[in-house]
Amino acid sequence: MKLTRKMVLTRAKASELHSVRKLNCWGSRLTDISICREMPSLEVITLSVNSVSTLEPVSGCRQLSELYVRRNRIGSLSELAHLQGLPRLRVLWLAENPCCGPDPRRYRLTVLRALPRLQRLDNQAVTEEELSRALIEGEELTALSVGHPAPETQGDSLGYSEEETGTEVQLGQKPPTQSHFPSAHTEAMNGCKTKGHVLSAVLLLLHELDAEALETVHQGVVSRLQALHAPEVQEDME
User: Fold this and answer.
1) What's the CA gap between 198 and 167, in Å, rounded?
2) Distance of alpha carbon 118 from the chain centroid
3) Residues 216, 218: Cα–Cα separation, whole Å
4) If you average pLDDT over every residue of the chain, what do you get?
5) Which of 50, 58, 106, 64 is nearest to 79 (CA)?
6) Is residue 79 packed enough to be buried (19+ CB in 10 Å), middle (13-18) or exposed (0-12)?
7) pTM for the predicted model, two decimal places
8) DSSP assignment of 168-212, as one string?
């Protein structure tokens, strides 16, 4: 089913798409949410318990702060790339999608690596420790493969959204697949990529700091550079 202009305006009690800020389409059997491209003011949208397979339509909703897409048909975590350009996104509920896979820890760290600004993921608060681990242990989006297709879901008789229940859910688990151990070459490549990802994360987080915090960072960078160049200066003197 396609999300239409009439459905949006009726549910949001609005007269124009561009003025819609909150939209609840929980359990509406939706497969097509392309109309979200016409809602630049959207701040909160609930799309849980539907059949949505891509997050691309919300990639232009620059005001979006909360996105609920639990139990849909999103097959790959590479879909998170569509959310990386949303500067205000702080809450994401993505659990019970095929992209979550059999390993909840890997899934969570990969999501946080892609979206380090999140404050809450799947109704659980994000910690600073998780963000630090995500930089090292989370997988990069370009290396992710498409997940398994989602099974058809049965209609849910409950008529309320995550915002109304406030309950936590467990990430869906699937039968584990045979593990593949990385080769020495792969491990070496991953080590090289880690520095690039850390740099990207640092540059991204700079936008969240005020002048005082940036000055502290600047002093730390200067001290670090002086320490790195000290051996070179010593060699020149000799």
Assistant:
1) 33
2) 7
3) 5
4) 78
5) 58
6) buried
7) 0.65
8) --PPP--PPPPP-PPPHHHHHHHHHHHHHHHHHHHHHHHTT--HH
